[in-house]
Amino acid sequence: MDKVTLRITRAKQLGFAFFIILAIANLSVNLIDGKFRMIDVIFVAITILPYALNKNWITLSFGVINAFISTFFFIAIFTSNPHAVFENNVYPLLTFAIGAMFGIISLIASGFLIYVGLYDQDQPETNKVLRVLIREMI
Question: Lower CB density within 10 Å: C or N end of the chain?
Answer without folding.
Answer: C
